[in-house]
Amino acid sequence: MAATGLISESEAWIDLKDHVAEINKTHLRELLTDTSRCEGMIKEHDGILIDFSRQRATQKTMEKLFSLSKEAKLEEKIKKMFIGEHINSTEDRAVLHVALRAPRTEHIFESGRDVVPDVWEVLDKIKDFSDRVRSGTWVGATGKPLTDVVAIGIGGSFLGPLFVHTALQTEPETAKAARNRKLRFLSNVDPIDVARALNGLKQETTLVVIVSKTFTTAETMLNARTVRSWITSALGYVSNAVSKHMVAISTNVKLVKEFGIDPENAFAFWDWVGGRYSVCSAVGVLPLSLQYGFDNITKFLEGAWSIDQHFRTAPFENNLPVLLGLLSVWNASFLGCPALAILPYCQALQKLAPHIQQVSMESNGKGVTIDGKVLDYEAGEIDFGEPGTNGQHSFYQLIHQGRVVPCDFIGIIKSQQSVFLRNEIVSNHDELMCNFFAQADALAYGKTPEELRAEGVPDYLIPHKTFTGNRPSLSMLLPTLKPYTVGQLLALYEHRIAVQGFIWGINSFDQWGVELGKVLASRVRTQMNASRTKGKPVEGFNHSTTTLLNRYLKVRGL
Ligand code: F6P
């Protein structure tokens, strides 16, 4: 590699740049006629099948991407992650979310300490606590069982658990386990979110779980205080109301205690778990076990672990997360497609895209290498998505005829639900999946002017009805959507994102970019308080912010 150390100066990167011209001479219409190419691009592991044949890539492209992975020392970096090296160097932390799903028998070390027993100590505590709450052994301050849970948290302390909860809500076995129970999330500091989360709940039967790695996040702490008041306003006359109705998940036991929560009712995790990678820690496992039972949630952990092992050991040619990561780098850095549409044909996966959006964009939205050198290529991916077929009636127009946006189509073979109508030829699920199969081909093949003419389309409409095709996608089929497969899906995307970051040479595990906005919000908060309590005029901001703030304060009457 050249002296600057940027991967973009490596031979492998330059070779891939040159290779773009060759790929530009092909069209997916032709690439898809090559059966042996297609066969080589369909990969399977533990029930998950991914068809990469609609990527704009050939065997030669794959070889060049593998050379790039060597140049980027991908294998070494994956290994370092699994053995607990402090690869998050700006925070001097290990990146060990994989240890959260390790079986009891495993040994994973961080700074010389085997963390697996620590993980299981917390998991055992969660099992015990969630069993007691679910069975009615742990009761509220007035002796009533706690049937409803409100989990307060934001970002990584919210999106992952919400994704898994949404995926399991309609699955018959987990739905049965959740009968007569509610799980709500409160994330936004917006009072509307508070009202929505508490609507219809009774303090006597509600357990509040405060989820915050740092226990300092402004939104979460304000919401926690608001909900504590909600609890004490109704139950304050009972001495142990807070300790019976509020528990916490945090790495910061000191602040948990200061908040008034009994440390006995705190569930720990560790600084080697990044917030956005924390759904397999108590952050997700506690609220989800309260709702669905601990045994169901261990299956979710097992699914993630299965992909962890595959990622750690499978040769790159068959390694699903590695292939996902390398091809996404190919799309973003070489073919000029910086976005990804995540399109599950499954309503239960409606929160997959928002979760992956955070994991990906907070991890890889960086402008410098891990050593602090300014990138001369763009890292990161713009992720968005919506379940099909809804998305088809929303933003697919742009994907078909506007910008080129690589798509991940995700289909489930056996739906969680079956709706059969006697006079219908296909079931709802089959109809859904017809669209899943059709969309990938529509993007790949498109429709030519010749085809349109042959159909008798008038000349003036030909440009409007032409689809260029040649738009990359991949199709993923999961057998079912159960806790185990939800875990697999999560780990696939987490590791895909790690692969991207390892190739781009960035630190995917810090998030300094979120800090500045927090600091500026705190300055505004100080001014707002000074204006409210001492009538002080707004000062120290630019003309625009001063005008906006003054308008706000005036109309609010502050
Ligand atoms: O602001 C971003 C962030 O720091 C995320 O990385 C994190 O998941 C979220 O805020 C919440 O942080 P905490 O769990 O410490 O409240």
Automatic annotation (TrEMBL):
Pathway: Carbohydrate degradation; glycolysis; D-glyceraldehyde 3-phosphate and glycerone phosphate from D-glucose: step 2/4. It is found in: Cytoplasm. PROSITE patterns: P_GLUCOSE_ISOMERASE_1 (PS00765), P_GLUCOSE_ISOMERASE_2 (PS00174), P_GLUCOSE_ISOMERASE_3 (PS51463). This is Glucose-6-phosphate isomerase. It comes from Selaginella moellendorffii (Spikemoss). Keywords: Cytoplasm, Gluconeogenesis, Glycolysis, Isomerase. It catalyses: alpha-D-glucose 6-phosphate = beta-D-fructose 6-phosphate. InterPro entries: G6P_Isomerase, G6P_Isomerase_C, Phosphoglucose_isomerase_CS, SIS_dom_sf, SIS_PGI_1, SIS_PGI_2.
